[in-house]
Amino acid sequence: MRTLQLDLGDRSYPIYIGRQLLTDSRLFTPHIHGKQVLVVSNVTVAPLYLDTLQSALPGYTLKHINLPDGEVYKTLDTLNLIFDALLENRFNRRCTLIALGGGVVGDICGFAAASYQRGVDFIQVPTTLLAQVDSSVGGKTGVNHQLGKNMIGAFHQPNGVVIDTDTLNTLADRELSAGLAEIVKYGLIRDPEFFVWLEQNIDRLLARDPEALAFAIERSCRNKADVVAADERESGQRALLNLGHTFGHAIETGTGYGTWLHGEAVGTGMLLAAELSARQGWLSTAQVERIARLLDRARLPVQTPASMNTEQFLDLMAVDKKVLDGGLRLVLMKDIGEAIVTSEFDARHLRATLDSAHSRAVA
Description:
By secondary structure, the protein is α/β, with parallel strands linked by helices.
């Protein structure tokens, strides 16, 4: 087992990475301060792992709720199902919620923990690659609105993150590739050596090689932990973690939540950011081609949806958390491994990038 620490002073917490961790009660009990535990999962993950997790939690008043599965259910209505379970079972302020599932489960469960009785404890147990390397770490929680993704939420740090890499054995190939997008992101924003490693090892990751996966997960979590420790509430450099996300969130909203997986949309969004960076004169054509080649090898889409034109992209991108005082800010790249958050880009270049993408889009 590998253990990282996210350093946030008195709110610091460990990130455990390894195999067969769901059965290890020692990873959970130090972070549960009361007797009441609610496990929040979904109808896909619970049949696979709920019993295993529950066996590691003897001695607690243990309840569980299984949410419907999918991004389309990341809503306030679904959030209320968790509140119903907490209130019906008379859970108090010393209760602990455990998120067992992918990013949707983790985000909704975390938001419920942030809100219930103005804040209770929770633990992240991510079961998808994307959640393991990104959404389970850093305390961002929330739900979607029909007009914008993740626009309703709160910062609420977990007490711990337990990443059992064995859960990836049951992950669909498409979901695995979606997680690889967020891994590639760390190489692009701040870790060029990792980007080169990914170019050399992407086939091992697709083949689910345990050593390669453990290394990539740890390297990704270490990168994210360092960024979050320096800027917990995204007032500065943490926004770099949103490379590709403004474009990607527009794709998710424009095509309907769940049509594209989050990682798929982010992968295409990162390529759009690279192409815009090249139009700005910051990246070379060869660098953009390297990025496109790696994303394609990771079995991620590298073309925008044909159903979305430039105007729709621009309208949806204007409804984004990174818009400040009416100005759109984007995460762009000066180099592979060097990203910036900026509003100082040529709007004509943005439009040309979207026009070019739409011209080669496929249905």
